[in-house]
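OP here, attaching both records as promised.
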Amino acid sequence: MESTNTRWKGKGFAEIARSNPMSQTLDQLQQALTQQPKTRALLSGQCALLEATPAQADLLNRACLGQPIVTAEKDKQWFELGLEETLYLHHHMKCLPIVCENENPMNDEELWARMKSVTKRFPVLYKAYSHLRSKRWVVRSGSQYGADFVVYRHHPALVHSEYAAIVRSPGCDGTRGGDARLESWPDLQCALRVCGSVAKTLLVLNVECNGCVAEEERFPACLEEYTVEERVIKRWTPEKCRDGSQTVGTNGY
């Protein structure tokens, strides 16, 4: 997946992004979270709540992880993390312990089982999310565009999102997200029209489970069995493909 239509929001923003690579911000966030032994997130429903120090809050905002929560407590800063963001910080970056409602620490198996119980599609959604994040793309919810995620080259304050990503799992059974989205021409055309109307490219991520059975999978070993195939789909516009006055092989071209 390559960046082909980067639309920066202002003059000089591309240089700002180059001077502040997302990989550097994530490294700083990892250090800031691990250096505070009391840092932990409370898993509650479909999100996790994190009380952050001012330095941690600044890095979370710069890394575009979570959403700040406005409270009456001026000396505390709270963030709401999505399930994919929570597991990414806990498992991939290994910098965020997770506790349940009774404040007991959760191990990997408990956390995985809890998140799968919230949504059956979580395993494939997390694999797709971590796949994009590992390539240093910024990933946010794409529900407003009828997609699973929207994908940015850098922070959304600097650049518009380039892709609307839909996650499919054609090799999995129906209990874990084996859906039929985009398998009919009308569905595909609708997705392409929506993406075109908001200047985004449709990115389809096919997650293959490669024989993993939902009831038998173990975290994190199951993630190593999953593979992700990227497909960029663009709408074909006949007007742009008609023979015109300039044709290959004519007038010396």
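Record two, same layout:
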Amino acid sequence: MTHRRYHPSHAGKTSIAARSPMFRAQLFGPLKEDNVQSIKVDEIQAPVFKALLHFIYWDALPDLQELVGLDTKWAVTLMAHHLLAAADQYGLERLRALCEAKFCEDVTINTVATVPFFFFVD
């Protein structure tokens, strides 16, 4: 299991709490730790968390191709898959919708097997 700590500023705490029910619970609600100066972020890769924060602050997907550093649809689709899982974990419905749209936009014969099954079940 990967453990990372995110240290938001006071303004950053307000911004991420306003967008995500999970962050809100961690910072101001029932999951709040005493003297919270950072948030424990489990089971999310650093580039995915960077993309998640980009979405929270800018309300848009970052350039996923630039973020993964590879010029392949497969890598972008895989990043969108991880970002979709993070959107579910942190309760970011708009991000989930953007990831789903990215899947539809980028699906090809070579990437269809990487599209998560739960994308089709709702």
